[in-house]
Amino acid sequence: MKYKVSAFLLVFCMAASCQKDVLDKAPLDIISDNVVWSDPSLVNAYLTECYAETYVFCNVSVDNSWDNLWKGDAGYAPMYINEVSDESKAGYIADGYSYKLGQLKVQGGLLEWWEGAYKVIRMLNEFIARVPASALEDDVKNKLTAEARWLRAYNYFEMVKRYGGVPIITTAQSPNAPEDSLYPKRAKEQEVYDFVLSETDAISDGLSTEPGNVTRPTRYAALALKCRAALYAGSIAKYGTVQLDGLLGIDASKAGGYYQQAYDAAKQIISSGKYSLYNKNPDDKVKNFRNLFLDKDNPEAIFVKAHNDQNGMGNGGNGWGYDFFQCPYPNGWGSGNMDAPYLEMAEEFEHTDGSPGKLDRDAIQQGLWTTDELWADKDPRFFATLYTQNTEWQGALLDYHKGIRKPDGSIQTDGSYNGILANGTQNVNATGFGVLKYMDENHGNLIGSNGDWATSSTNWMVFRYGEVLLNYAEAALNTGKPGDALDAVNQIRERAGIAALGSVGVDDIRHERKVELAFEGHRYWDLRRWRIAVQVLSRNNSALRYILDYATKKYKLMVVEKTDGTVTPPAFYPQNYYLPITLARTANNPNLVENPGY
């Protein structure tokens, strides 16, 4: 429920017959400012609305051209972040994927979080200013104020990782404020990161020290935010370049200090003993990793965006559209498979003995294969993260085959042969893979009207213990503690069911992040902060085609090179390490400096 908060209500009556008692009546459609701040339930509702408006929890950003109903996570926007990384291409809706093909211009449009962020920040600034005089108990005031400051810091982190330095606004602006307040300049990138880190320190004592309600931040959620933000700042300092007098970039000499802050924050979470890697099904590693994202009673969850099974498409519910858009066929729109993972992503998963997972592409295109042979001894996370040919789903096996190899060796690609369709039921023109992570087989995906698809009830983990361990490993390696880094990575690998490493380097940690955190919205930002996106995201990736052999029911395999296309292949340019401020924003505020290259 949304509340309209009005500081002043002026009622004018031009008719001479208006009576004073009419003018004195309270409006019926607006909850007045005084009522909100004197009613504890409305104060809580106000803050709840701030959480609800922070769409970026689920990687959803606000593009002003979207209808309001699509600004949240009820639609397919949460998947865009995967499609602009090297994890996947678009399976059937390419709105976000197009930006991967060199289409990010000064007009912006990709992963925006500016107007939406400042809307939430203004609400939070008002909340932080007004709560001290509210009717709440002092301990509740302190807790809610700390939560609001955490949420404000989170929004600033989401902005700085997109745009670099942005204006830092900590008071609710008045229309009558001085011009430099209404048209603020961008702070330096380092100043924004330092603001986020200082806020997490300042609010620590005001937040709960028990996990409790994972939909509201605890002290450990503050530490998790600090850990992630400090790791990003360290990376920017180490790998980035200072530009525009510091609006972009951080001096390289600061890298070690930020990495140390990330290490210390992660260490506090680890040492608390409040969280652990999910391991409720230790004898079935595939089931265990799948359930990590489905089980709401979760020892790994530090902070989550909660969902229920009530329609979230503008009807007051809190469901989201993840299952509907990511699911295999059948689907209410005749689609599904929103993200189409690359063959390279599948190959990233090692074998359980720790040997590389990269296929011998020449060898696999010779002879015939079963899927058991093709994926033998793969990292269990492969089977819990991706679906492909013969993955079991809702009591049946998924079928991606495209073409039938007849006994004479010819391949038929349409119609049927002796009662067997030439093409399987899945999206045979995509990549041969879909995303299984977070998918709930119990969700009915044949609905497709009136927004009924937005009824997925899985929680989205914004911060989880597995990420903290990997942040810790990266920070440890960058502060001269390779033993700590190795231990953290091996904890992740042991839970996964894969051989431990004997030593660890930068590439090992980056690999482990790619497979452990796949399709959780981290990869694109990781490639940017490491400053390797120009190389990694300017490559054309591959797909795998399964051709059914009629005689043996095995598969002839074909690697489809350049599945992203050759006319407009993927292209990430150096200026894309920062999103554009955009023409519209610099026109509205002449004090905003555009990022270089746009």
From TrEMBL:
Protein localization: Cell outer membrane
Keyword Signal: yes
Homology family: Belongs to the SusD family.
Domain RagB/SusD: start-end pairs: 299-598
PROSITE patterns according to UniProt: PROKAR_LIPOPROTEIN (PS51257)
Signal peptide extent: 1-20
Keyword annotations of the record: Cell outer membrane, Membrane, Signal
Source species, domain of life: Bacteria
Residue intervals of the SusD-like N-terminal domain: 110-228
Coiled-coil features, chain-numbered ranges: none
Annotated protein name in UniProt: RagB/SusD family nutrient uptake outer membrane protein
